[in-house]
Amino acid sequence: MSRPDFDDIFMELAVNLAKRSHCIKKHVGAVLTKETRIISIGYNGPPAGTHNCDLEFPESGCARDSKGSCSLALHAEQNAILYAVKNNTSVEGSTLYVTLSPCLACSRIIFSMGISKVVYLFSYAEYKGIGSDEGVDFLRKFGVEVEKYSKELEVQDQLI
């Protein structure tokens, strides 16, 4: 039996976490790690204790902001970072595995929190139909290592 790489384990976990999302538009999962240890996890959705979009707005999802993004949900990266910080866990020097490359706003948070590496599965720019992955460009410009996960994963949920 072959032993999987930690990159594979963490990205597969991010894919599975994405399935927990209640968003009707896109499911995104994130795993924050230090070395070979998971320090936090997250998936996109409204703040805990509010509501679930697929239950509250099953036909259309929650309201959209002026850029077409969800007006209520936290992104998977934000949830993972916030949970770690809320529990007094330092994220500085950590690696973030995420199923969708970070948007520009999340990338600013990632950089500001001292996360040193981001590994993503799918392109945010391709999903949004925009010219470039602004978040990835931002992170690279300011010295955060970013890589696209290159192995094939079985992704059954079409929203991921």
Automatic annotation (TrEMBL):
Cofactor(s) it depends on: Zn(2+)
Transport keyword on record: no
PROSITE patterns noted in UniProt: CYT_DCMP_DEAMINASES_1, CYT_DCMP_DEAMINASES_2
Pfam families: dCMP_cyt_deam_1
Listed InterPro entries: APOBEC/CMP_deaminase_Zn-bd, CMP_dCMP_dom, Cytidine_deaminase-like, dCMP_deaminase, dCMP_deaminase-rel, Deoxycytidylate_deaminase_dom
Record-linked Gene3D superfamilies: Cytidine Deaminase, domain 2
SUPFAM superfamilies (alphabetical): Cytidine deaminase-like (SSF53927)
Record keywords: Hydrolase, Metal-binding, Zinc
Keyword Hydrolase set for record: yes
Family the UniProt entry places it in: Belongs to the cytidine and deoxycytidylate deaminase family.
Identification of the protein by name: dCMP deaminase family protein
Provenance organism: Algoriphagus oliviformis
Species lineage: Bacteria, Pseudomonadati, Bacteroidota, Cytophagia, Cytophagales
